[in-house]
Design a protein that fits this description.
This protein is α+β, with helices and mostly antiparallel strands and about 210 residues long. The protein has one domain: Glutaredoxin (3-Layer(aba) Sandwich). It contains six helices and nine strands; from the N terminus they run αβββααβαβαββββα. The N terminus is likely disordered.
Length: about 210
């Protein structure tokens, strides 16, 4: 059992290191190629998409405008990283007032559409909050939106395992009411630190 836990720990650490390198590389390349910085020096993240929500409705990015968006990419079979990130998001939202929380969409987007059907998504996200939105789609649709957010993910097969795993980056994206990036939260952030940024963004949205 100890050896198995050590192996899992090594995988998690390696994933975190890969994620950090990939995202830093993305940020450093914002001034060239298909991704650019906005006029206010925010990284240009996000873009148009067509997906299916956890209750089977076809949605696009336009359905989530008008509120802040907290977006996390992961998968329901994830053993620890995704539940941790979503729990942090839920804890941060629980620290807000009901009025503040109503102005934020917490969104979980799968990077494993093969297994994450609408039914799986619906049963999974309810564990984190009634207002959480789960989004899935075809492999191509997920690939498209992942590119807009510079999300890394890769299927990993382990010999003897009954299910495959997904290596993936682990960041939570905060988008404004117009769908533009405000900031990116690292994995393991303190919920209180997330709340500070959420409240500052809500205040800015209210004064805009």
């Amino acid at each position: 059992m100890a050896a198995k836990n050590n192996k899992a720990g090594i995988v998690i650490i390696a994933l975190a290191m890969i994620s950090a390198v990939l995202f830093i590389g993305f940020i450093m390349s914002q001034d060239s190629g298909s991704h650019r910085q906005t006029d206010d020096n925010r990284p240009k993240l996000g873009g148009p998409f067509a997906l299916t929500n956890h209750i089977g409705q076809n949605v696009t990015e336009k359905d989530y405008l008008g509120k802040l968006q907290l977006i996390y990419f992961g998968y329901t079979f994830c053993p620890d990283v995704c539940p941790t990130s979503l729990s942090i998001m839920a804890s941060a939202l629980d620290l807000l007032t009901p009025q503040e929380r109503k102005k934020i969409y917490p969104i979980f987007i799968t990077i494993d559409p093969e297994r994450d059907t609408t039914e799986y998504m619906k049963d999974y996200i309810i564990n984190f909050g009634d207002d959480f939105v789960g989004l899935t789609g075809t492999a191509e649709q997920v690939k498209d939106i992942s590119k807009y957010f510079a999300v890394y993910y890769k299927r990993v097969e382990e010999e003897g395992a009954s299910e495959y795993l997904m290596d993936h980056s682990s960041y939570t994206y905060l988008m404004d009411e117009k769908g533009k990036a405000i900031t990116v939260f690292r994995h393991g952030i303190d919920p209180k630190d997330m709340v500070q940024q959420l409240r500052a963004s809500l205040k800015e949205m209210g004064s805009g």
